[in-house]
Structure formats: structure tokens, C-alpha cells
What does this fold into?
Amino acid sequence: MKKTRLIIIFAAVFAVSHIYAQDYYRYASVIDTQTAYNLGKGGYQLSFLAYNNGGIEWKSFVGLTDNFFLGVSLDTEHMIGKEDISPNVPGVVLKLRLTDGWERWPVSVSIGYDSFYMGQVGKAPNNLSSDGKTSNFEYNDLNKMIYGPYFVITKPLYTFNSEQHFSFGMRLPTQPDYVPIDSTYFFSLDIPLGWAFVIKGEIERVYWDFRRQENWLANAGLRFNIIDNLGFDFCFRFESGEKVNRVFRMEYNNEF
It folds into this structure.
């Protein structure tokens, strides 16, 4: 029965992708990493992200020009659940596109400042004490959003009568703490299946010296666009030795 359902779902996704194979959208981000693409002037995006242990991030930005957007990110840990709510300092979100390349080599290059997720390293179980009221949750400084500058290159790929997008970037954590030794690389690929579905994959938190492989993150997800300017992401983050972290994001895009 499960195999039959999977086959039906796959067939439906393939049918939609075949009908709308030439329709695609260039997204400003993938799952937890950025692309080099930008919003147009007057465009704006509102997003809601729910991540591990009840964390919620609200993010909004506006395209001031065709090559530059500016916004803000508001992150709150334990927004959902029994733990005490822990709001973080709001962060600035910005991106400046430096180039879109040229006709024979359409490579986009951008720099920016944004949030990214540190993961579950050292995460302690969320148990209750014997009285059933007091939590023994151990605060984990890595299990939250942090902010920093990044540099990213995105190259479109053209296969199966459609366009996919491969990105490579580097970023540096600066807020709330400046930790240059934790500078990382990231790689991502998004595969639009028509306008309605997008398959997403990332490898992030690859440290600059390629060590600490056990802390690298692998992310995978699927985006479903209900209408042209409203979509939902259902994603998973994988880390060696840790439970899979489920992520949900809702994004709304429009223009003034």
C-alpha cells in the first residue's frame, strides 16, 4: 500500500513537472543557505520558519533596487513548547548582487548578510524532573540562528528542458559572537519541477579547513507552491549522531 501511494505521488509530481517544464522561479534562498539571486525593485518577501525545539524565525525584506534588498530577521527560541521563550537580538538581512555574468557564462555573484542555523551539536534531551513541572533542559548555544556575512556564486544548469540552480558560498559567524574559526562553506542545488514543486538539497557548515566532518549538515526538502506567490517548504536537516531535524517554512512574495 505504501509503495502504491509513493508511486502515485511520484507520478503526479512528474506529470505536473512535465506540463510546466519551462516554468521556473529563481529563489533568493534554498533551505538554510542563500543563492546569488535577488528580488526585483519593489518586490518583497515575508517568511515564517519553524525549526528544532520550538524555534520560530520571522524574516522580511524588500527590493530597493534590482540588485539590492534590505530587511530584518526576528528569531525566538522555544516559541512553541514548554520551555521559557528566549528571543535573540534581531538581525539585519541584506544582499547585493554584483553581477549576473554574461550570455555565454551566466553566473551570478552576490554578497550579503543573513541568518543561518548552527544545528544540534551537544543538544541535551528535554526531560522533566520528578515533580513533572521543572524542566531539566540544558541550554545549547549552537541550537539557534546566528548571523554573518556571506559570499555566494550561483550557476544555472539546463537539463530536461528546464533550469536548475547550483550555488557555492562561504560565510562567517559574527552575531552574537565573532568566531572566525567557524567560517564555513556551503553547497546547494534546487531542481524546479514546473512551477508547483521544487526539490532542494544542501550541504552546509563545511568548515574552512574541511575538518570536523561529524558536524557538517546535509539538508533536503520539497517546496510546494500553492499559487505563484505563496509556497511551503517541508525540509529535513541531517547531522551525524543526531536526530533528524524537521523544518517548515512558509514564504509569501509580492510587489508594491
